[in-house]
Amino acid sequence: xxxxxxxxxxxxxxxxxxxxxxxxxxxxxxxxxxxxxxxxxxxxxxxxxxxxxxxxxxxxxxxxxxxxxxxxxxxxxxxxxxxxxxxxxxxxxxxxxxxxxxxxxxxxxxxxxxxxxxxxxxxxxxxxxxxxxxxxxxxxxxxxxxxxxxxxxxxxxxxxxxxxxxxxxxxxxxxxxxxxxxxxxxxxxxxxxxxxxxxxxxxxxxxxxxxxxxxxxxxxxxxxxxxxxxxxxxxxxxxxxxxxxxxxxxxxxxxxxxxxxxxxxxxxxxxxxxxxxxxxxxxxxxxxxxxxxxxxxxxxxxxxxxxxxxxxxxxxxxxxxxxxxxxxxxxxxx
Amino acid sequence: xxxxxxxxxxxxxxxxxxxxxxxxxxxxxxxxxxxxxxxxxxxxxxxxxxxxxxxxxxxxxxxxxxxxxxxxxxxxxxxxxxxxxxxxxxxxxxxxxxxxxxxxxxxxxxxxxxxxxxxxxxxxxxxxxxxxxxxxxxxxxxxxxxxxxxxxxxxxxxxxxxxxxxxxxxxxxxxxxxxxxxxxxxxxxxxxxxxxxxxxxxxxxxxxxxxxxxxxxxxxxxxxxxxxxxxxxxxxxxxxxxxxxxxxxxxxxxxxxxxxxxxxxxxxxxxxxxxxxxxxxxxxxxxxxxxxxxxxxxxxxxxxxxxxxxxxxxxxxxxxxxxxxxxxxxxxxx
Amino acid sequence: xxxxxxxxxxxxxxxxxxxxxxxxxxxxxxxxxxxxxxxxxxxxxxxxxxxxxxxxxxxxxxxxxxxxxxxxxxxxxxxxxxxxxxxxxxxxxxxxxxxxxxxxxxxxxxxxxxxxxxxxxxxxxxxxxxxxxxxxxxxxxxxxxxxxxxxxxxxxxxxxxxxxxxxxxxxxxxxxxxxxxxxxxxxxxxxxxxxxxxxxxxxxxxxxxxxxxxxxxxxxxxxx
Amino acid sequence: xxxxxxxxxxxxxxxxxxxxxxxxxxxxxxxxxxxxxxxxxxxxxxxxxxxxxxxxxxxxxxxxxxxxxxxxxxxxxxxxxxxxxxxxxxxxxxxxxxxxxxxxxxxxxxxxxxxxxxxxxxxxxxxxxxxxxxxxxxxxxxxxxxxxxxxxxxxxxxxxxxxxxxxxxxxxxxxxxxxxxxxxxxxxxxxxxxxxxxxxxxxxxxxxxxxxxxxxxxxxx
Amino acid sequence: xxxxxxxxxxxxxxxxxxxxxxxxxxxxxxxxxxxxxxxxxxxxxxxxxxxxxxxxxxxxxxxxxxxxxxxxxxxxxxxxxxxxxxxxxxxxxxxxxxxxxxxxxxxxxxxxxxxxxxxxxxxxxxxxxxxxxxxxxxxxxxxxxxxxxxxxxxxxxxxxxxxxxxxxxxxxxxxxxxxxxxxxxxxxxxxxxxxxxxxxxxxxxxxxxxxxxxxxxxxxx
Lengths: 334, 334, 224, 221, 221
Ligand SMILES: Nc1ncnc2c1ncn2[C@@H]1O[C@H](COP(=O)(O)OP(=O)(O)OP(=O)(O)O)[C@@H](O)[C@H]1O
Ligand SMILES: Nc1ncnc2c1ncn2[C@@H]1O[C@H](COP(=O)(O)OP(=O)(O)OP(=O)(O)O)[C@@H](O)[C@H]1O
Ligand SMILES: [Mg+2]
Ligand SMILES: [Mg+2]
Hints:
The complex is a heteropentamer, with 2 copies of chain A (334 residues), 1 copy of chain C (224 residues) and 2 copies of chain D (221 residues).
Chain A: E1 2-10, E2 13-21, E3 26-31, H1 37-45, E4 60-63, H2 75-84, H3 93-99, H4 115-128, E5 133-137, H5 145-161, E6 166-170, H6 173-179, E7 182-187, E8 190-196, H7 197-201, H8 207-210, E9 215-226, E10 229-233, E11 238-242, E12 252-257, E13 261-264, E14 275-286, E15 291-298, E16 301-308, H9 309-314, E17 322-327, E18 331-333
Parallel strand pairs in A: 3-6, 3-7, 4-5, 5-6
Antiparallel strand pairs in A: 1-2, 7-8, 9-10, 9-12, 10-11, 12-18, 13-17, 14-15, 14-17, 15-16
Chain C: E1 2-5, H1 9-23, E2 29-32, H2 34-42, E3 49-51, H3 56-64, E4 73-77, E5 80-84, H4 90-95, E6 102-105, H5 111-123, H6 126-130, E7 133-136, H7 139-147, E8 153-157, E9 171-174, E10 184-189, H8 197-205, H9 209-217
Parallel strand pairs in C: 1-2, 1-3, 6-7, 6-8
Antiparallel strand pairs in C: 3-10, 4-10, 5-8, 5-9
Chain D: H1 4-34, H2 40-48, H3 55-66, H4 71-80, H5 88-112, H6 116-124, H7 129-140, H8 142-158, H9 161-167, H10 177-186, H11 190-219
Helix pairs in contact in D: 1-5, 1-8, 1-10, 3-9, 5-8, 5-9, 6-7, 8-11, 10-11
């Protein structure tokens, strides 16, 4: 585990964090604008107050919120800057460059890059340092979804292949759900929740998560392929998801957004919804005037569904009911 | 209409645009990182080549991709900078400040703001100039979803109350669908599509839109309220959506993402899916190995559904079939 | 090494040449204002012979032990000249309030300045001149003021008139020796050269007739 | 001779020179920072030239140029009826020429390191080029102005070669403190020289330290 | 007297002075740009002091300080056996002191306008403070270095007050071109003075223009 213990006051704002996060995998830090996410990363990197190890010896790779590449170096120079100073070389430069699609701009100066291009170069530079811990401050905010989808798997590999722990700041819960194993919720400089992603996400009482951000994560192993789909076994049932995933026996993570789940009393037939799971209602939590979150158990797994209060009344949903959970879509992380 | 006719070469990149966009409402510009979105806005603002009217006489409000506030001025000074130089004053400063939640930081210096806070101040500054045309370059990319949801309606009002046309660059199709009336798709500096949002969005053949970005927009008027929900009449049927919308008779825009629509042959019963519409299949377009987009007609409206190829086979979906479209969720723009 | 007051620099250069030709010994001239050279000597300047523009500083050096006692002698005596490139009559211009600036050397720092003021005062011109006087750092600057036309008339040293590129004067008037005093220029052998035979030789060379002729040719008077 | 007279004259001269240099140097610096002409390095080198010549020599050339027969001097005489040389005005002009690079270079540097973005923002917020220059470029280049002011002010206080030549060391009119100190040193009047030096250094120190304190306050962000 | 000897001496002097000033001034400038001490304005004012005194007067004080009886001079004599004054080394020291502000100020300004962000990035990329200083702070402050170099180089070429006083105008050793020109002007030898001035200005112009051209190439981004 990594102990994060930081206290910092800036004007009216106070960051006060004392938690432990795993030293493997990706830890997400989620919070509103101004909640102190960047401040936390800066503390971890040693940029806020000069105590303990000097910054350059901490061997953290920091992808800043604002890329801010070195203007006097070419893109190549920027990428190699950290590599040259790295104590170990565990990262394949060519791979990083290809993944980030920046091979064609190596000889350009940063000033000529678009916002997203610059951010990709900044990510490459931080990775090439072969860091022991990677800090990422909203690295994908300036990228389009396509590029984002392309990059996300690479962040995964980062800790899988290089077993480098990552602390990942984002205001996009979907990104976090897809990437992270552990989740820290920040609000006004305080940690309001910290724990396994699966646990934190399935809590229906977190204001910050109960809106459009709600959803759960399920670990499941690919067991079958068909029609470009993969069948995942999560112990208590199967889920189909688009894409071909190797049946290596390694469980993958499936994100099921609450907004993608609907509930039916009767077993639906002849619908395009692929996944229909038998579930029992565990908790119904009204979020606002119109909507509610319903937590269901599917075997040992939790599922969240975002439904209207009207539907809750119509279907008379309450804890203990046996229902069918219809899962419209699933995001898989390789 | 506003004629946008710009040609610009920067290194290997060429922007070549010659289109007309409406002089009312919001025009979205969507494209990948590096496709030339920022370059286009700069051309419109007159920042790229010095010809025609000088920049300061064009009376455009430009929200830059990178906020870059004036470091020597306080937040208040930054906001008032444009206001003092405005020729007309149609914008209520207090309202803008409140909407953007920056009232508490007026006396601070930009250096002490978080990334999202700075961007909000930049937006306020551009609006306070009371511009004739607003250019926004991914103004919400650095904001969390909550703040984003809060701000989006305000952008709407911008053109509704002030009847200021807006050109809105984003790589988030949901944002664009929610906001825009007109959509320009950019790819590698060229316009690949330009037209009414509704039309461009319902095309199933646009690679950039056929992935997770697919969806349609429907104009509909609120006609009833119940259980915190509002019933919308779109002429060919009703749709329920969460929230209370005034029944002013003015049609609003409903975004229906393709991923939120499923198809059933039989009429579903006892499900939490509120909206079940009779529809006829118009086109089935395989997107990749696993998924397809299905365009359906509901009266004169189009709906897109993102389904698996397997479901298409199982349900034997083909053009002309009568089906039930299940709409799990709808985003309403006020 | 010979430290030379700047007004004597051209004469000194010629003397050095002659000396070199005669003896084969190289002479290095360091030119500066007498005040500057004096301060430098006090602070260990590597000069062997000091050709000052006045008598006071060589005397002081002798007293303070920086110069070899008894070597001090007057190697040249300057004389003042009124010089103008615009006025018809130099003396008349001194009393003509509308004639323009009168350039002289700073009486506080330069002996020629002091002598000029003395002359003006005793001859009764001072009242008219004082309001239009401009002061050069030294006598050379005073001449430059006049030569560039910025001053109508300059009170300069006669030795300067032999300068190669001086514009033609419209009038010159040599101030009689009696009206100006204190223009004796003295030389001393400096302490560090007390046992330097070559320096001594140059020092003695200054007293030779050849040297005296040269000095005279440069516009200086010489006591017998 | 009062000890304060020359100081006061020096202060006037340094003040006038600095003000003029900022007024003249700022547009030059701005032009240099924005231009894309190939001749820029040449112009930059020309601007730096005045300090390459020994002050007295520069003074000599200025004496010719500003004198009643010189190009500028004769024109000035026609215009005003009085000569430029040996006057306070002449001193100011000469000082300005001599200290020009000290004002231009730091200001130009500050302008050049100003990110273009800020100007673009100002324009889109409705500021004309001139307005943006004053409301954005100048305040964000404050540091350069302070340096330029400090260097030209201090340098003018200390300069005496040019001033002596063009000014003619006239008490009360062109005898500034630097010349006065020089005269004292030359005439072996060391005590007076020390006193005046101390006065000059003390005064300059007070002015510059105040300047730097203000600069610090201002640039605290 | 050859016309090139003094020029060559001047070039050596200006070159040595500039190199030393960059070496000495850079840490001073860096410290000033980073420090948060209250005394910063005071230190800044002290650094600017050398140009406030008239060169000859400063030279006079340096003469005393560096002379065989002076604090530094006597120590130097003990150390090396030879005197500092009237030697090339002494000239270099005096020039360095006199031109210090011209080197420090522009470099300090450049350091101060360097966004902190770049240093922080360098550190997180594994660069030690020193490494980040050389690999990021210095190249991004090039403009300031160029100004500092140009001003101190040109100023040293042109300076003669201090140099004359401390150096003593000894041909081949301390008679630099500025003094030589001065001598020619003083001895009314105008043709020679013009020639040498032209040579000096031409040379300085070539050096500075080259410098600016290089600077431009480098900072083209
Ligand atoms: N110097 C300062 N003085 C006062 N408040 C400050 C200062 N610096 C930062 N803050 C405040 O600290 C808070 C945390 O800032 P931080 O940059 O960590 O937020 P964040 O969570 O990264 O936000 P975002 O998502 O917008 O980037 C903000 O509310 C900010 O206003
Ligand atoms: N000076 C230049 N030299 C070469 N290419 C350039 C230059 N300036 C910009 N470009 C290229 O122009 C293209 C368009 O840039 P632009 O900033 O308009 O993209 P964008 O659509 O705004 O991207 P993003 O979403 O990442 O901000 C990019 O591919 C960029 O690399
Ligand atoms: Mg942040
Ligand atoms: Mg862009």
